[in-house]
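testing teh design pipeline on a random one, pls ignore if ur not involved
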């Protein structure tokens, strides 16, 4: 058999069939999702133990918040270059490489935990774990046919549950040894890096760009859809991040819940967003993802208005938060189904990096706004009305503009 014939046979065997995704596609999806969850656990290692670090280092509330924010901000911004590098070098190299490199800051937490400056430096490096989102999206996008791509991207997006896993397991593991969580995660990352190197494969028909990193990022930044998608994702995923950061504080302050009760309800909110993300992708395979996004944000807008009137937590307040969580989770899944439709295939990684970064950064403005409004007005109602306005604007834009955009018409 000639080399060209062998290549043709290999492509035919590995390319997803028209009737459904191939075994190779499903394997890559599973391995990428596990890696996404694990690296996100590593990314969020400091936050669950912030109180312990704050007590040991005698930190102010602001200093603790800053310590927690550093890896999140770095991880969000780091998705931009990592997405572009994935376009060039592929997920088979980047996924195990980033996973292995993340072991270094995870282990450095152990000697650094007695110095605030050292912890900030380690937190900066831990941001590396938050960049894998920009590796997995182009990998999954390339392997799955359009009819199944939305659900597949939504399933991959469930890896963001790694943050919730960290919040639940990290402090419990720490009870058996203050350094044990970091050793456990480091070993898990090492095992995963080997597994990823063996099992992740780039699609044989993947288009490899030949231009420089800066040129590709510049080209992605010039696409109008990059910033339109960034705005929509900043509302959807940014809303999830914002509630994850601020919801426990809101529940303790306004409804006078204990820290344990507030944390449990916040975990329930996070679980709903994780469950509804693949539902948003699945719906996008059957309905235009812009329509799904618009409907999901309409739900968020409606129940944000209802929560602005400060209903009793049980049952109406809880219903409002659960339905807002469902809307935000659905929108997060449908926006990335939209990315795969309106972005040229060779630029999916670069665009994903920018959109993912804006989504992560979008989660840090709302808590600041909510805190400032409460300090000034002793009420959260204005904050929820602003959320409603933002979600409604995203709803109108998604339905009115994004339904008419395709990769062929992208300016």
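output:
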């Amino acid at each position: 058999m000639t080399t060209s014939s062998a290549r043709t046979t290999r492509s035919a065997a590995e390319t997803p069939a028209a009737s459904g995704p191939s075994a190779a596609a499903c394997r890559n999806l599973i391995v990428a999702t596990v890696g996404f969850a694990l690296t996100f656990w590593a990314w969020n290692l400091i936050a669950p133990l912030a109180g312990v670090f704050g007590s040991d280092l005698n930190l102010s509330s602001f200093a603790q918040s800053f310590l927690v924010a550093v890896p999140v901000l770095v991880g969000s911004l780091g998705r931009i270059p990592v997405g572009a590098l994935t376009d060039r070098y592929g997920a088979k190299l980047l996924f195990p490489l980033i996973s292995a490199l993340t072991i270094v800051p995870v282990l450095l937490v152990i000697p650094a935990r007695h110095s605030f400056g050292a912890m900030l430096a380690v937190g900066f490096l831990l941001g590396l774990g938050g960049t894998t989102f920009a590796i997995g999206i182009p990998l999954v996008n390339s392997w799955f046919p359009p009819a199944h791509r939305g659900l597949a991207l939504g399933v991959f997006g469930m890896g963001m549950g790694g943050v919730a896993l960290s919040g639940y397991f990290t402090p419990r593991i720490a009870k058996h040894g203050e350094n044990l969580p970091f050793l456990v995660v480091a070993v898990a990352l090492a095992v995963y890096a080997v597994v990823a190197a063996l099992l992740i494969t780039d699609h044989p028909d993947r288009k490899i760009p030949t231009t420089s990193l800066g040129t590709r990022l510049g080209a992605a930044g010039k696409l109008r859809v990059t910033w339109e998608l960034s705005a929509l994702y900043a509302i959807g995923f940014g809303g999830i991040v914002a509630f994850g950061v601020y919801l426990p504080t809101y529940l303790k302050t306004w409804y006078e819940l204990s820290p344990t009760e507030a944390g449990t309800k916040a975990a329930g909110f996070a679980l709903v967003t994780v469950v509804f993300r693949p539902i948003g992708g699945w719906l996008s395979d059957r309905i235009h993802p812009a329509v799904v996004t618009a409907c999901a944000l309409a739900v968020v807008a409606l129940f944000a208005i209802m929560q602005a009137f400060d209903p009793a937590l049980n049952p109406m307040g809880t219903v409002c938060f659960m339905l807002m969580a469902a809307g935000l989770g659905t929108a997060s899944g449908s926006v990335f189904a939209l990315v795969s439709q309106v972005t040229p295939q060779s630029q999916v990684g670069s665009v994903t990096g920018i959109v993912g970064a804006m989504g992560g950064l979008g989660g840090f403005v709302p808590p600041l706004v909510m805190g400032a409004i409460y300090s000034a007005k002793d009420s959260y109602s204005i904050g929820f009305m602003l959320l409603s306005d933002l979600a409604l604007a995203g709803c109108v834009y998604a339905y009115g503009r994004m339904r008419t955009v395709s990769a062929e018409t992208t300016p």
